[in-house]
Design goal:
Blueprint: H1 8-29, E1 34-38, E2 48-52, E3 57-61, E4 69-71, H2 81-113, H3 129-164, E5 169-171, H4 173-197, H5 215-219, H6 225-231
Helix pairs in contact: 1-2, 1-4, 2-3, 3-4
Amino acid sequence: MGCRDVHAATVLAFLSGTASVAGLLAAVLLPNWRQMRLYTFNKNERNVTIYTGLWIKCARFDGSRDCVIYDPQWYTAVDQLDLRVLQFALPLSMLTAVCALFLCLIGMCNTAFVSTVPNVKLAKCLVNSAGCHLVAGLLFLLACAICLTPSIWVIFYNNYLNRKYEPVFSFDISVFIAIASAGGLFFTSVLLFLWYCACKSLPSPFWQPLYSHAPSMHSYASQPYSARSRLSAIEIDIPVVTHAS
Protein backbone atom coordinates (compact mmCIF):
# COMPACT_ATOMS: atom_id res chain seq x y z
CA MET A 1 0.00 0.00 0.00
CA GLY A 2 1.58 3.25 -1.07
CA CYS A 3 0.75 6.78 -0.07
CA ARG A 4 0.54 7.97 -3.65
CA ASP A 5 -2.58 5.91 -4.46
CA VAL A 6 -6.19 6.19 -3.31
CA HIS A 7 -7.04 2.99 -1.47
CA ALA A 8 -10.24 1.42 -0.19
CA ALA A 9 -9.09 2.10 3.38
CA THR A 10 -9.18 5.87 2.96
CA VAL A 11 -12.46 5.81 1.03
CA LEU A 12 -14.05 3.56 3.65
CA ALA A 13 -12.73 5.84 6.39
CA PHE A 14 -14.29 8.87 4.73
CA LEU A 15 -17.66 7.12 4.35
CA SER A 16 -17.53 5.85 7.94
CA GLY A 17 -16.70 9.32 9.23
CA THR A 18 -19.55 10.85 7.24
CA ALA A 19 -22.02 8.29 8.60
CA SER A 20 -20.78 8.92 12.14
CA VAL A 21 -21.27 12.68 11.78
CA ALA A 22 -24.78 12.07 10.46
CA GLY A 23 -25.48 9.87 13.48
CA LEU A 24 -24.24 12.59 15.83
CA LEU A 25 -26.48 15.12 14.13
CA ALA A 26 -29.48 12.83 14.59
CA ALA A 27 -28.62 12.29 18.25
CA VAL A 28 -28.33 16.04 18.81
CA LEU A 29 -31.68 16.84 17.22
CA LEU A 30 -33.81 13.97 18.52
CA PRO A 31 -35.70 14.64 21.78
CA ASN A 32 -35.00 11.14 23.03
CA TRP A 33 -32.16 11.34 25.53
CA ARG A 34 -34.19 10.64 28.66
CA GLN A 35 -37.71 9.43 29.40
CA MET A 36 -39.63 10.12 32.56
CA ARG A 37 -42.70 7.92 32.81
CA LEU A 38 -45.46 9.11 35.13
CA TYR A 39 -48.03 6.52 36.19
CA THR A 40 -51.58 7.17 37.32
CA PHE A 41 -53.88 4.85 39.24
CA ASN A 42 -56.98 6.60 37.89
CA LYS A 43 -58.61 4.39 35.29
CA ASN A 44 -60.08 7.45 33.56
CA GLU A 45 -56.64 8.92 32.87
CA ARG A 46 -53.68 7.75 30.87
CA ASN A 47 -50.04 7.49 31.81
CA VAL A 48 -47.75 10.28 30.64
CA THR A 49 -44.23 9.94 29.26
CA ILE A 50 -41.96 13.00 29.18
CA TYR A 51 -39.30 12.87 26.47
CA THR A 52 -36.29 15.02 27.26
CA GLY A 53 -33.81 16.09 24.61
CA LEU A 54 -30.93 18.50 24.49
CA TRP A 55 -33.03 21.34 23.09
CA ILE A 56 -36.71 20.47 23.55
CA LYS A 57 -39.01 18.61 25.93
CA CYS A 58 -42.20 16.82 24.94
CA ALA A 59 -44.91 15.18 27.09
CA ARG A 60 -47.19 12.57 25.51
CA PHE A 61 -50.03 10.39 26.67
CA ASP A 62 -49.65 6.66 26.12
CA GLY A 63 -50.80 5.70 22.64
CA SER A 64 -50.54 9.26 21.32
CA ARG A 65 -47.92 10.80 19.03
CA ASP A 66 -48.88 14.41 19.70
CA CYS A 67 -47.13 16.41 22.37
CA VAL A 68 -49.48 17.53 25.12
CA ILE A 69 -46.74 19.82 26.44
CA TYR A 70 -44.06 21.03 24.04
CA ASP A 71 -41.25 23.20 25.37
CA PRO A 72 -38.98 24.56 22.61
CA GLN A 73 -37.12 26.74 25.14
CA TRP A 74 -35.96 23.75 27.17
CA TYR A 75 -32.32 24.30 26.17
CA THR A 76 -32.21 27.52 28.19
CA ALA A 77 -33.52 25.90 31.38
CA VAL A 78 -31.90 22.45 31.41
CA ASP A 79 -31.66 21.35 35.04
CA GLN A 80 -29.85 18.05 34.44
CA LEU A 81 -26.07 18.29 34.45
CA ASP A 82 -25.41 15.48 31.99
CA LEU A 83 -27.67 17.00 29.33
CA ARG A 84 -26.12 20.42 29.86
CA VAL A 85 -22.67 18.95 29.24
CA LEU A 86 -23.94 17.19 26.13
CA GLN A 87 -25.22 20.50 24.74
CA PHE A 88 -21.60 21.62 24.45
CA ALA A 89 -19.84 18.28 23.93
CA LEU A 90 -21.79 16.93 20.95
CA PRO A 91 -21.61 20.07 18.77
CA LEU A 92 -17.89 20.29 19.57
CA SER A 93 -17.46 16.64 18.61
CA MET A 94 -19.32 17.24 15.35
CA LEU A 95 -17.17 20.26 14.53
CA THR A 96 -13.98 18.27 15.19
CA ALA A 97 -15.21 15.38 13.04
CA VAL A 98 -16.17 17.73 10.19
CA CYS A 99 -12.66 19.24 10.25
CA ALA A 100 -11.25 15.70 10.12
CA LEU A 101 -13.48 14.87 7.14
CA PHE A 102 -12.26 18.00 5.37
CA LEU A 103 -8.63 17.01 5.92
CA CYS A 104 -9.35 13.46 4.78
CA LEU A 105 -10.99 14.78 1.60
CA ILE A 106 -8.01 17.06 0.93
CA GLY A 107 -5.66 14.11 1.31
CA MET A 108 -7.64 11.95 -1.10
CA CYS A 109 -8.00 14.72 -3.69
CA ASN A 110 -4.29 15.46 -3.43
CA THR A 111 -3.51 11.78 -3.94
CA ALA A 112 -5.88 11.41 -6.89
CA PHE A 113 -5.32 14.60 -8.86
CA VAL A 114 -1.83 15.90 -8.08
CA SER A 115 0.99 14.81 -10.31
CA THR A 116 3.51 12.34 -8.91
CA VAL A 117 6.28 14.55 -10.17
CA PRO A 118 5.80 17.93 -8.45
CA ASN A 119 7.16 21.18 -9.68
CA VAL A 120 10.52 22.07 -8.13
CA LYS A 121 9.35 25.59 -7.29
CA LEU A 122 6.19 24.32 -5.55
CA ALA A 123 7.75 21.35 -3.74
CA LYS A 124 7.66 23.05 -0.34
CA CYS A 125 4.03 24.17 -0.80
CA LEU A 126 2.56 20.77 -1.58
CA VAL A 127 0.19 18.99 0.81
CA ASN A 128 1.22 15.59 2.06
CA SER A 129 -1.76 13.24 1.82
CA ALA A 130 -0.25 10.96 4.45
CA GLY A 131 0.01 13.91 6.83
CA CYS A 132 -3.59 14.91 6.15
CA HIS A 133 -4.82 11.42 6.97
CA LEU A 134 -2.71 11.24 10.12
CA VAL A 135 -4.04 14.51 11.49
CA ALA A 136 -7.57 13.53 10.42
CA GLY A 137 -7.21 10.27 12.35
CA LEU A 138 -6.14 12.19 15.47
CA LEU A 139 -9.12 14.54 15.11
CA PHE A 140 -11.51 11.59 14.69
CA LEU A 141 -10.09 10.04 17.85
CA LEU A 142 -10.53 13.33 19.71
CA ALA A 143 -14.12 13.65 18.45
CA CYS A 144 -14.80 10.09 19.64
CA ALA A 145 -13.54 10.90 23.15
CA ILE A 146 -15.55 14.13 23.33
CA CYS A 147 -18.74 12.32 22.29
CA LEU A 148 -18.35 9.00 24.08
CA THR A 149 -17.53 10.21 27.60
CA PRO A 150 -20.65 12.33 28.27
CA SER A 151 -22.88 9.84 26.40
CA ILE A 152 -21.86 7.02 28.74
CA TRP A 153 -22.20 9.38 31.69
CA VAL A 154 -25.91 9.72 30.85
CA ILE A 155 -26.41 6.06 31.77
CA PHE A 156 -24.79 6.45 35.20
CA TYR A 157 -26.51 9.77 35.83
CA ASN A 158 -29.83 8.16 35.00
CA ASN A 159 -29.23 5.58 37.76
CA TYR A 160 -28.35 8.43 40.10
CA LEU A 161 -31.67 10.16 39.37
CA ASN A 162 -33.58 6.93 40.01
CA ARG A 163 -31.90 6.54 43.38
CA LYS A 164 -32.38 10.17 44.34
CA TYR A 165 -36.02 10.50 43.31
CA GLU A 166 -38.11 7.58 42.02
CA PRO A 167 -37.33 4.85 39.46
CA VAL A 168 -39.18 6.62 36.68
CA PHE A 169 -36.18 7.68 34.58
CA SER A 170 -34.74 5.73 31.65
CA PHE A 171 -32.30 6.66 28.90
CA ASP A 172 -33.62 6.64 25.36
CA ILE A 173 -32.49 5.85 21.83
CA SER A 174 -30.32 8.97 21.38
CA VAL A 175 -27.84 7.54 23.88
CA PHE A 176 -27.34 4.45 21.73
CA ILE A 177 -27.07 6.53 18.56
CA ALA A 178 -24.39 8.74 20.13
CA ILE A 179 -22.40 5.75 21.43
CA ALA A 180 -22.65 4.01 18.04
CA SER A 181 -21.50 7.21 16.31
CA ALA A 182 -18.54 7.43 18.68
CA GLY A 183 -17.69 3.85 17.77
CA GLY A 184 -17.83 4.83 14.10
CA LEU A 185 -15.45 7.71 14.73
CA PHE A 186 -13.05 5.36 16.51
CA PHE A 187 -13.24 2.87 13.64
CA THR A 188 -12.52 5.69 11.18
CA SER A 189 -9.45 6.81 13.12
CA VAL A 190 -8.15 3.22 13.27
CA LEU A 191 -8.50 2.87 9.49
CA LEU A 192 -6.57 6.08 8.90
CA PHE A 193 -3.85 5.07 11.36
CA LEU A 194 -3.47 1.69 9.66
CA TRP A 195 -3.21 3.42 6.29
CA TYR A 196 -0.59 5.79 7.64
CA CYS A 197 1.43 2.96 9.18
CA ALA A 198 1.78 1.50 5.69
CA CYS A 199 3.22 4.83 4.54
CA LYS A 200 5.55 5.58 7.46
CA SER A 201 8.57 4.18 5.62
CA LEU A 202 8.62 7.32 3.50
CA PRO A 203 11.66 9.46 4.30
CA SER A 204 9.80 12.78 4.44
CA PRO A 205 8.37 14.23 7.69
CA PHE A 206 4.70 13.56 8.36
CA TRP A 207 3.46 17.05 7.37
CA GLN A 208 6.01 17.85 4.66
CA PRO A 209 5.47 16.92 1.00
CA LEU A 210 5.96 13.30 0.05
CA TYR A 211 9.10 14.37 -1.76
CA SER A 212 11.50 16.25 0.48
CA HIS A 213 13.08 17.31 -2.82
CA ALA A 214 11.55 17.19 -6.23
CA PRO A 215 11.88 13.79 -7.92
CA SER A 216 13.64 15.45 -10.81
CA MET A 217 16.51 16.22 -8.45
CA HIS A 218 16.87 12.55 -7.58
CA SER A 219 15.90 10.67 -10.70
CA TYR A 220 16.88 12.95 -13.53
CA ALA A 221 19.99 14.71 -12.29
CA SER A 222 22.95 14.46 -14.61
CA GLN A 223 25.69 12.12 -13.41
CA PRO A 224 29.27 13.21 -12.89
CA TYR A 225 31.60 13.23 -15.82
CA SER A 226 33.75 10.39 -14.52
CA ALA A 227 30.71 8.15 -14.01
CA ARG A 228 29.40 8.85 -17.47
CA SER A 229 32.80 8.20 -19.01
CA ARG A 230 32.87 4.72 -17.49
CA LEU A 231 29.49 3.80 -18.94
CA SER A 232 30.38 4.08 -22.58
CA ALA A 233 33.47 4.80 -24.52
CA ILE A 234 31.43 6.96 -26.85
CA GLU A 235 30.99 9.57 -24.12
CA ILE A 236 34.73 9.84 -23.42
CA ASP A 237 36.17 13.04 -24.85
CA ILE A 238 39.51 12.20 -26.47
CA PRO A 239 41.73 15.27 -26.45
CA VAL A 240 43.51 16.10 -29.68
CA VAL A 241 47.20 17.00 -29.23
CA THR A 242 48.90 18.97 -31.96
CA HIS A 243 52.60 19.66 -32.16
CA ALA A 244 53.78 23.02 -33.30
CA SER A 245 56.20 22.84 -36.11
